[in-house]
Amino acid sequence: MKVVEDDKVGVVMVHSDSQWLTCDVTTLEDGSKIRVSFVYGLNSPLGRKALWDYLEQQKTPNNTIPWAILGDFNAILSSSDRHGGDDQWHSHMDDFPSCIDNSELIHVQTTGLQLGIMGSMLMPRSSDGWTGLLATKLS
Known about the structure:
7-stranded mixed beta sheet, Endonuclease/exonuclease/phosphatase domain-containing protein, alpha+beta, 139 residues, elongated, Endo/exonu/phosph_ase_sf
């Protein structure tokens, strides 16, 4: 399904689900392509399992083109990524780091202001969290 095409790029939706939207973006000048997945992970660990499975399954189909994954995974890689709340590391917290490793993804460091939810307000937070994470496939 073609989503957008202008004089510079074409965007085609590859797959979508409640937690992700994956598109191929192709430059019309030279035909180079990148795959981009936009993610918003569900709040429950059980609900995010489908997201982790999808990312791991996409490792092989995406090994020939660059793949960027952007969004809010609603998960952390380590306890140092947490800001407030429960400081215990529960077994379900291993799911996200395992997915990143199994999918051969890397964390591209972000800089600048990031946002997090405090109560019902969107508030600035430090840049060491995972909101706004960009992960790309290793080449």
